[in-house]
Amino acid sequence: MTSFEPQQVPGEAPPSDAVSPRDSGPDQPTSIARLNQTIKASIDTWGAVWVEGEITQWNRRGANVFGGLKDLRSDAQVNLQIWSSVLRRLTDEFQVGDHVVACLKADYFVKRGSFSFQVTTMKHVGLGAQLERLERLRRQLQGEGLFDASRKKTLPFLPDRIGLITGAESDAEKDVLRNAQLRWPQVRFRTIHATVQGERSVPEILQALELLDADPEIDVIIIARGGGDPQTLLGFSDERLVRAVAAAQTPTVSAIGHENDRPLLDDVADLRASTPTDAAKRVVPDVGEQRALVDQLRSRLTMRLQQQVQHGIQQLEQMRSRPALRDPDAMLRNREQEVFLSLSRGRDLTTRLVDRAERRAGELRASLRALSPAATLARGYAITQTADGAILRHASSAPEGTALTVTLDKGAIAAISQGDVSSATPSTEK
Questions:
Q1: Within this chain, do residues 104 and 85 fall inside the same structural domain, yes or no?
Q2: What is the DSSP string of 377-429?
Q3: Nearest Cα to 366, choosing from 424, 358, 162?
């Protein structure tokens, strides 16, 4: 057994020989610094040890890594620290779930009184059994189309009642309820508490999911947990739970809160939230934002209506300013003058046409009168016709005794031809 002997602590006076940690008691307690120095001295005597396990945590902080290593056959775990100088020498890339062997050196931090193992070297053995099994299941479910975006349901804009599955009195429950009520105070919840890690988690979550999915008042279901290492999140990758969420009729939100390692529930849920707080923000709209949006839309609508009304007024003013509407009688007066001029032109043209026609008619009448047989008869001439109506043009055509009709200017007389008088009567001229 390592003896707790007094040791020099930097910045502290040398311990008194009269006070020994071995002989410490209520009246003579030793200092915490001396105790930590003695523990560190004992741990420093341990040598390095090679161990085999599965990486459960792998967090980079600056150039260093802080992680965890789990036993392959039990729940035993140790904390790891890998300084940047060691990390630069490692040729492999590591992540949660890797099966590795590592050389560990125990270290005790005197100032904080904390214990951890520093990694001096590490190499892969292969994927951890759990990770390999999950990867096979992931590929199977993806092949069945359970991760397809086309099958995922749309969340309601404003759910009336939200189903919440989470641990009893957990920070996840408080975060969801507080943030949802801050965003929309009237929102209602039906919360069912379930174990969120361990063997009981999957059956209890399945039972809660069945109850909430059968409740007609539930519009959306949130499954929430405040993060954790991959080992404690294994239940959210259970095939029974994943298939139950895929078959649920109510939209489901996964709010596990673990960024480094996504459980299968995140892939099959209708919506993945990074944290329970994020789930509340994405499921419940912010009443302030919605009121601001309504005010903005109302303002835009009012402005648009005002623009339309103003545009209509301007158009009406433009129409009223047009000459036809400003002085409607002017158009009638203009048309009246045009009609009067057209009538005058029409009257003049008609008069000229009538006069021309009358003159032409007079000329034709005179020509007709001059050429008419009646005019010739009026000058003392007569027309002689035989009984058959033929006009007698030569005396020889009417032998003696031929019945004749002599037409005069005023009437007609009947006559009997005496033959060609010019040949039968002796001339009296000497």
A1: yes
A2: HHTT--EEEETTSPBP-SGGGS-TT-EEEEE-SS-EEEEE----HHHHSPP--
A3: 358
The residue segments making up the domain with residue 407 are 377-422
| C-alpha dihedral (285, 286, 289, 293), degrees to nearest 10 | 30
Q: What is the DSSP letter of 144?
A: T
Q: Which tokens belong to 408?
A: 């005069």
Residue 20 has pLDDT above 80, yes or no: no
* Residue of higher predicted confidence among 124 and 59: 59
Kind of pairing, strands 77-82 and 114-127?
parallel
The neighbouring-strand residues paired with 404 are 386, 415
* 383-386 and 98-109 strand pairing: unpaired
The count of domains in the chain is 3
For residue 327, being part of any structural domain is answered with: no
Residue 208 contacts residue 234 (beta carbons within 8 Å): no
CA–CA gap between residue 80 and residue 100 (Å, rounded): 13
| Close Cβ partners of 125 (under 8 Å, ≥ 6 residues apart) | 52, 99, 100, 101
CA distance 165 to 417: 152
What is the Cα–Cα distance from 257 to 31, expressed in whole angstroms?
Answer: 42
Q: How far is CA 224 from CA 157, 239, 299, in A?
A: 20, 18, 39
User: Are 95 and 186 contained in the same domain?
Assistant: no
Distances (CA, A) of 401 to 86, 392, 419: 172, 14, 7
Tell me how crowded residue 223 is: count the other CB atoms within 10 A of its CB. 28
Reading the block at residue 262, the tokens are 């996504």
Which strands make up the sheet holding 412-416, listed edge to edge? Answer: 383-386, 403-407, 412-416
Furthest-apart CA atoms within the chain: distance in Å: 219
Return the percentage of the chain with pLDDT > 70, whole number: 89
Of 162, 153, 69, nearest in space to 119 by CA: 69
Q: Which structure tokens are listed for 364?
A: 């034709």
What residue type is 120 in one-letter code?
T
3-state secondary structure 119-131: EEEEEEEEECHHH
- Statement to judge: residues 106 and 212 lie in one domain: no
Residue at 150: amino acid letter: S
Global confidence as pTM: 0.49
Give the pLDDT band of residue 365 (cuts 50, 70, 90).
confident
User: In 167-226, at which residue ranges do the beta strands (DSSP E only) sit?
Assistant: 188-193, 220-224
Contact 285, 266 (CB under 8 A): no
